Known about the structure:
The complex is a heterodimer of chains A (115) and B (116).
Chain A: E1 5-7, E2 10-13, E3 19-24, E4 31-37, E5 44-50, E6 53-57, E7 65-68, E8 75-79, E9 88-98, E10 101-106, E11 110-114
Parallel strand pairs in A: 2-11
Antiparallel strand pairs in A: 1-3, 3-8, 4-5, 4-9, 5-6, 7-8, 9-10, 9-11
Chain B: E1 3-5, E2 10-14, E3 19-21, E4 24-26, E5 32-39, E6 46-52, E7 60-61, E8 64-69, E9 74-79, E10 88-98, E11 101-106, E12 110-115
Parallel strand pairs in B: 2-12
Antiparallel strand pairs in B: 1-4, 3-9, 5-6, 5-10, 7-8, 8-9, 10-11, 10-12
Amino acid sequence: EPEVTQTPSHQVTQMGQEVILRCVPISNHLYFYWYRQILGQKVEFLVSFYNNEISEKSEIFDDQFSVERPDGSNFTLKIRSTKLEDSAMYFCASGFVAGGEETQYFGPGTRLLVL
Amino acid sequence: AQKITQTQPGMFVQEKEAVTLDCTYDTSDPSYGLFWYKQPSSGEMIFLIYQGSYDQQNATEGRYSLNFQKARKSANLVISASQLGDSAMYFCAMSLTQGGSEKLVFGKGTKLTVNP
């Protein structure tokens, strides 16, 4: 069964460092997303990506964040200068909308710890 | 503003019994989707079931069914014949059509514990 994959599963970084979180969405999906979940809290939307551009972004997704789909398979989230409060689980998701049916499947997440 | 409310922080159920996890939503958009996800202690988010706002019938997926009451704006998840492996956090989420992207708005979750 196709699935969304994410690497790395865990990342520890120093405050101020750049991190790149990688995702491989399900191959026939057209919509891509990043969400984050701070420990013990609910999942929050960061950004959606469709047709090679950002469709929507939340207020969390400030200038420190960027997304790219550099080739036909990878979808990346870059945080330029990490802050302590960026520590969270980051989920990539992909989905499609067809015939009134929606899907949105999540990857296993990358647990980011900023020290 | 769009909002998902899960009023049960924690629920307990005996193995093999059914359990209902509550979810209410608030939106003025006539077109939306409702999702349930399971998050085990390992952290991944597992898609369980989807209901579209125009669907006439309640969604079912194996032991999961969604009790969709549009007038009440509720989308409760029913798990039949609970198993020990069902112990996890359960999140209700709503998708909003925004120019083709379907961002999800999540509730705070319900922690389900299945007792042997």
